[in-house]
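// run 5 | inverse folding | seed 20
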């Protein structure tokens, strides 16, 4: 298990890697131990962060994207791709060597802070 987070007083979320798959599961406390698997995605070498708030699960990825899941659905509800800016042209480029390293919800809000492996930080708002 790479990460565990209490979602509220009744459930917790965990992420773990099995072979090359990362799995996110929600466990409801005081019920038989049958997890609800939210998603499986490739995670070859880097743990890419997890943050839980009000039924939403935010996670980074090795594809330099932030994914937001809702506990009721097995697929992402939203995603956001980080791009690198070329300092000379100002053009945004896809840099597949980078990955999201950290995600964190701001309290009980719809604001998410995410950072990638180059130190690029974004403040994202779900609307």
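// decoded
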């Amino acid at each position: 298990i790479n990460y565990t987070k209490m979602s509220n007083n009744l459930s917790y979320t965990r992420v773990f890697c099995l072979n090359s798959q990362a799995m996110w599961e929600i466990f409801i406390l005081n019920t038989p131990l049958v997890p609800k698997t939210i998603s499986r995605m490739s995670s070859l070498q880097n743990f890419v962060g997890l943050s839980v708030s009000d039924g939403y699960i935010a996670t980074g990825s090795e594809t330099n994207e932030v994914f937001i899941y809702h506990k009721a659905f097995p697929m992402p509800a939203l995603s956001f791709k980080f791009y690198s800016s070329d300092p000379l042209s100002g053009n945004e480029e896809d840099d597949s060597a980078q990955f999201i390293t950290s995600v964190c919800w701001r309290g009980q809000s719809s604001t998410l802070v995410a950072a990638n492996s180059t130190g690029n930080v974004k403040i994202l708002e779900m609307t």
